[in-house]
Specification:
Elements (H helix, E strand, L loop, with lengths): L1 H15 L4 H31 L4 H36 L2 H46 L11 H4 L8 H6 L3 H27 L21
Length: 219
Amino acid sequence: MKSAAIKGRDFSYYWLFAGWWPSVVNFIDCKIGQPVKDRYNRIIVKIQYIVYGYWLSPVAEKAKIILKKQALILLTYTKNLSIRLGIFLKDSILWPILISGYNIALVPAFEVLKDKYRFIEDNVLIYFLAPVCQTVINVVPEKSPFVEDSDLELDDFLPCENDAESDASWDPDEEEIKRKKEEAALQEKKKRINQKSALIEFPDFNDLGSSDEEFMFDN
C-alpha cells in the first residue's frame, strides 16, 4: 500500500510538475535540433569555402598537374614528329634544296652585317677617334720630355761666377751676340724636334675607303 502511494506520488509529481519535460527537450534536441544544426553548419562551411576562395588552391594544383602532363605529352609528340620530319627531309630530294637555300640566304645576311660593321667603323673613326687624336696632338708639348736638354738651355739656370765683374764689364753688343746664338740654338732644337715628330705617322682618315654616299640614308 505504501509502495503504491509512493508510485502514485512520483507519477503525479512527474506529470504535474513537468518532470517529463527534460526528456522531451533532450529527445527533440537529439532527433531534430542537432541534425538541423549540423546541416546548417555544413551549409555555412560550404558557403565560406566558395565565397572565400578556398577552392582555388586545390583547383590550381590539379590544373598544374594536368597541364604538366599535357605539356610533357605535347613535348614528346613534337620531338618524335621533328625527328621523323628530319629523317624524311634528309632522305628526300628536298634536303639539297634546303641546304642551297640556306646558303643563299646566309651569304646576303653576312654581307648586310659586313656593311653595317663598316658603317659603324667609319663613324667611330670619324666622329670619335679623329677628335681624340686631334686633342692628343694639340695637348702634346712642343718640347719632348724624352729629349735631353742642351747646355745652352741650362745656361740661364747656372749662377754666374763673378756677378760683379760681369756687371762691370757688361757689353750690349756682346749680350746681343749671345742672345742671337741662344735663339739660333733654340731654333735648331725645335727643328730637330719637328723632324722627329714628322717620323710619327698618324692615320689619314681620308684614305679609309669611305665616301659620302655611304652616309646617305635611303628614303
